Amino acid sequence: MSRYLTDFARPSGTLPPRADMSSDAPVLTLDGTWRFHLAPSIAEAPDGFHATDYDDSGWTDLPVPSNWPMHGHGKPAYTNVVYPFPIDPPNVPTENPTGDHRVTFTVPADWSGQRAVIRFDGVDSCGVVWLNGVQLGVTYGSRLPAEFDITAALRPGAENVLAVRVHQWSSGSYLEDQDMWWLPGIFRSVTVRLRPAGGIDDLFLHADYDHTTGTGTLLVDGPEDAVVSVPALGLTGLATGVTHQVGEVRPWSPEDPALYDVLVATDAETVSLRAGFRTVKIVDGILTVNGRRIQIHGVNRHEHHPDTGRVVPLDVVRAELELMKRHHVNAVRTSHYPPDPRVLDLFDELGFWVIDECDLETHGFEFVGWRDNPSDDPRWRDAYLDRISRMIERDKNHPSVILWSLGNEAGTGRNLAAMANWSRDRDPSRPVHYEGDHACEYVDVYSRMYADHAESTLIGRGEDPSGHRRSLPYILCEFAHAMGNGPGGMLEYREIFDRYPRAQGGFIWEWLDHGIRQDGFYAYGGDFGEPLHDGNFVIDGLVFPDRTPSPGLTEFAAVFAPVLIGVHPDKVDVKNTYTYRDLGHVALAWSLGDRSGVVASGTLSLPPVPAGTSAEIPLKDLPLPSGPASETWLTVTATAAKALPGVPAGLVLGAGQAVVHEPAPVVRSTPVPADGLRLGSAVFEPVHGRLVKLGDLELDGPRPHIWRAPTDNDRMDDRGTGSLLRSWKEAGLHRMRERLVAITPSADGLQVESRFAPAGTNVGFTSTVRWTYADDALHATWRLVADERWTLTLPRIGVRLALPGSLTSVSWFGRGPGEAYSDSIQAALVGAWTSTVDDLQTPYVYPQENGHRADVRNLTLRDASGAGLEVLGGPSFGFTARNHTDEDLEEAGRRTRIPARDQVFVNLDLAQRGLGTASCGTGPLPPYILTAGDHVLNFTLRALR
Ligand code: IPT
User: Which one of 626, 784, 806, 862 has the lowest number of neighbouring Cβ atoms within 10 Å?
Assistant: First the structure.
């Protein structure tokens, strides 16, 4: 009865694939409320449910499109690579959640005698379809459309009963092992379409651009009797099947996504498409579009919504793509399946280079040494070809799509090679991408994931050992894993892309955290009781599950800014890194800022700067401060003077800054002598020698602190040999102990010396604070010296102070407004910033180190009356301030478990380890690794009242 389930993922009864097009032929959507019944296995599913008179009154309502586990039927489950069922292809488990769906609909009586089809845009993973009791066939290929001819079964003018049985597991599941939640259901639209006799079932639009002449050509493959018109070009009555010279056109690119409406009509039907004139070519190993080398600043985009799973409302998609544009994302890889078909229209309209990726991944076979991998087994060949043809036929008319991707992580094999051949035969205009073919036997670009900076440099330089690969463009289909706090190191990737023409950019893994909204927190793997899961590895996006930007996205925008600005006291260098645009739409402004905020500002005029060139703008007559004025920074910002598609006027397109005034060091008065444990208004306690009072302010600290709540990147940094976190923990960095050596009062201050070391070992640090008091302020010189035998690198070097919880307002002069770490710092500019303790926290779904503000010159924390503490750097420090400790953060696991204590814990950091991207990829680059040794941090504390 269910032999189809093991039929090597071959659909049956479906119509040949064709383009997704809008037409004037009638379409009826069946999206809405359906009846639904879930059975734990096929044997337990109701018999005869597809009969028109079946009584479904005992069933429940379910919206379609939907993933049923998102509506209380069964549960979501997350695995990355591992299959959540035994690897026993093509068989599937007996426990196979089976969702029966029923809906009724009517179509007008005048459809009678005409052909009609039903289209499913996405059914996960396999569906059997009946109309009025007649079985139409079986769908396979969850993220691909399936159409059935319903002419014979349809009753125009009367009630029709559609019944669909959907199985969570099928042989198709072996081909759909993407790193995401397992979510069955009819999760994309279902439509019934009239197909008029003499209508247009399919079209293939070819709109090429000749950059040498600035003119376009248009070829529409379609019915011979159809005529083509392009109103905006004044073209009417063109024949199909012929290449037409259409004269001068505006070429399509993400920088100017110019689209032309194309109407194709027969007597029976008019179809409208949008042409974008562009020509993709690999020239001398460089991927070009319209004659220019392109550089990909992309993201991998999955379809996910925290409340509805893989059903994402179109307005949410539009908003997210606009958010990408506002952060200078110019490319999307549709990891790892073709998106909802309407998303492609948005890619065309808003402007993105797109790698359209087929719904194919067999990654779990890696765990069994790729034995029986479908990619190299002839029994699965039909399914592979079926999938590539359905993607290409559906999406072939979209100018945004510049590469076809065979799939992701499916090993290698002849079925993949066959897909590549099919693709090249059908559409020679787009090169073929697939990362798994490292030898590049059947792909046109050399694609890699997570290759580190060193290897990418080597490849960029053409020093890659393989000769053939060396002749292909190099693209990182995944890099800079954005899990948790990170990624670090994006800047150095961009430098490689800018330096080596062959290194044509890449796609961040990934756009979105796939959290599932629960009461007050976002669930990740394991939260639904899955016996096998990959925890929070699905929380690895540049935006949080609700699509608010995480600092990684802000950093992306700064690193991949189209306008690069170098600031000098006497000139500004402006580099236009657009591929096609000049800077005619850009306004340039300068500002001078110090501790008090912006003190002067103005605009600069920009000469013409063609794409790919630079200009030098002299600076004259800036009101630069002199003498004792505070440190002053000059910031130059490029913004959009007018709106572009998806880019609002005023958007920052690049910024740079430099310090232009550094005051002479302040000469301090003679320090006061210590009086026992008192020094000026400061009081120290005798047990550890810690400061407990400063004026009226009660505090506790500073204690040396070398720990941070591990980031995902810390947790997964295997350093090539073993776990970094394990070494840190074995060494006891998170459980350091202190022994007071001596408190030594003197005529010019007080010195506190301690031994700082973990239990169970004989290596550690010597900590010395030299305190002096002058000019109503307490000055500290803290020195931390590691024993010579200390070999481990450190997560942080700093001190921790506990302050009263009433200090909630924060202001600082330093980098901000957002968090910054040494290798993710481009977005944070030096300025005067304010915040609250709460707002300093970054809500990473999996709690970890966050919220660090870098290069801070001075910091104040105040209560509602304005009283509190000021910290001055000598010259600077980094800080975090929170109502919980690093240990609390580390323990929490989810945000609702982070305690709120009645204290503010302030870490004053000399330095922290960078972030890197070792959760998948490389750790921080050498300059961002923190070694123990001999470190000194100077700071001044002043009580504010
Ligand atoms: C790579 C996958 O392609 C992607 O889907 C995702 O799982 C990513 O890793 C990590 O989040 S595969 C990995 C083995 C490099």
Answer: 626
